[in-house]
Amino acid sequence: MNVVSFAIKILVLALTLFCFACGPENNPASQPGNETPAPTVEVKKKTFDDDVATVRYSEYTWMFVLRRRDGKAIDGDDSKFIRANTPPETNQRLVSDEGKAVIMGTNFRFYPGQYDALNKRFEVQDLSAAKYEKNENDLPSANKAAGDPKNQNPKNISNKKP
Question: How far is CA 62 from CA 66, 110, 129, in A?
Answer without folding.
Answer: 13, 11, 7
